[in-house]
């Protein structure tokens, strides 16, 4: 008796050929149901769940309240959301954490680490990672994965302990009480988020190759100094096959544009503002130690705020002409 509804659900969860094709067409963004699939959560329930977890994150993590930084990161995020399949409104916040990572909870509660902004070389690199996270929300990966877990008759709470050592490390590092099932996705979901994220950043006007560039940069950093990128590696394994797939998607699905946004002077300004803020905070922490230590910035320089790029704030975004 019990096997009948299970079979029916599995059939519903199987993707139809037509919807798969739409997913490969960036012109269809917004008109394709990318979040379809077995899901025990209504959108309302998903938003309520995300809100509750976001509350836990905000209690534990330090949120950057600098208005210039938060306005900018929110603006980049909302711009990508507008060019995505997401059906929920997003709130974007910046978390004070050195970990090069970002995570979006179900229902559109999106947290971007300061470590990610400081490591990104351009707005397009930052946007690439953000678009990937937005894709996880648009495709409802968190609640779909939780639903799959429940299908396997696994209660959702013990899943916290099922992320293994990597999962534990991430939770420790981020100080989070969010179950791993909402942070670490199956390989299939990762691949889908890569594909959708590339389409979102492309439609927003960014050069999609920036995603691959950043990917490769993080990979070589990790190879040089294992453990550096522990967090991003455990929740988003950066594999050669992901890089190859991303390059293939760009070549086959995204018609080359004459011009792309690579970076903006706003990005440079926010990055140096953030570097100053992080340095100042670090010096403040050491006040009682009688022995001030300078915090080393990711690029190896001691941040003193003198690294302003010298660009005119009104300058238009840097556009890269594609060699043809
Ligand atoms: Zn991911």
If you compute it from the alpha carbons, what radius of gyration comes out, rounded to the nearest whole angstrom?
A: 20 Å
> Averaging pLDDT over every residue, what do you get?
79
> How helical, in percent, are the residues?
40-55%
The hetero compounds bound to this protein are: zinc ion
Regions with little confidence, pLDDT below 50 for 5+ residues: 1-19, 153-176, 300-314
The percentage of residues in β strands lies in 5-15%
User: What is the number of domains?
Assistant: 1
Helix and strand succession?
Answer: HHHHEEEHHHHHHHHEHE
Number of strands: 5
* Biggest beta sheet attributes: 3 strands, mixed
Structural class: mainly alpha
Distance between the termini: 62 Å
CA-based shape = globular
Query: With helices defined by DSSP (H or I, 4 residues minimum), what is the helix count?
Result: 13
Molecular structure report:
The protein is mainly alpha-helical. It has one domain (28-281). It is 53% helix and 7% strand. The chain contains 13 helices and 5 strands. Strands 1-3-2 form a 3-stranded mixed beta sheet, sandwiched between helices. A hairpin with a 3-residue loop joins strand 2 (102-105) and strand 3. The N and C termini lie far apart (62 Å). The structure holds zinc ion. Zinc ion binds at residues 132, 136, 185, 190, 193, 236.
């Amino acid at each position: 008796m019990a096997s009948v509804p299970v079979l029916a659900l599995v059939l519903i969860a199987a993707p139809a050929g037509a919807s798969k094709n739409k997913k490969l067409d960036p012109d269809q963004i917004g008109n394709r149901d990318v979040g379809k699939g077995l899901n025990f959560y209504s959108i309302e329930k998903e938003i309520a769940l995300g809100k509750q977890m976001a509350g836990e994150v905000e209690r534990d993590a330090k949120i950057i309240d600098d208005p210039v930084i938060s306005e900018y990161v929110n603006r980049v995020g909302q711009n990508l959301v507008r060019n995505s399949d997401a059906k929920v409104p997003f709130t974007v916040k910046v978390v004070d954490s050195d970990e090069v990572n970002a995570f979006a909870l179900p229902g559109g509660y999106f947290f971007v680490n300061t470590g990610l902004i400081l490591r990104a070389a351009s707005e397009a690199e930052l946007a690439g990672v953000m678009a990937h996270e937005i894709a996880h929300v648009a495709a409802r990966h968190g609640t779909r994965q939780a639903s799959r877990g429940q299908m396997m008759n696994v209660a959702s709470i013990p899943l916290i302990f099922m992320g293994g050592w990597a999962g534990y490390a991430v939770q420790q590092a981020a100080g989070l009480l969010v179950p791993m099932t909402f942070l670490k996705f199956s390989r299939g979901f990762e691949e889908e988020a890569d594909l959708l994220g590339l389409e979102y950043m492309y439609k927003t006007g960014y050069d999609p190759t920036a995603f691959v560039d950043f990917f490769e940069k993080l990979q070589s950093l990790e190879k040089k100094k294992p453990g550096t990128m522990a967090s991003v590696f455990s929740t988003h394994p950066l594999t050669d096959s992901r890089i190859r797939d991303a390059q293939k998607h760009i070549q086959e699905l995204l018609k080359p544009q004459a011009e792309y946004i690579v970076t903006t002077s706003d990005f440079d300004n926010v990055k140096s503002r953030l570097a100053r803020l992080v340095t100042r905070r670090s010096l403040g922490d050491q006040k009682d130690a009688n022995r001030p230590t300078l915090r080393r910035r990711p690029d190896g320089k001691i941040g003193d705020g003198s690294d302003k790029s010298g660009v005119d704030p009104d300058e238009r975004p840097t556009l890269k002409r594609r060699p043809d």
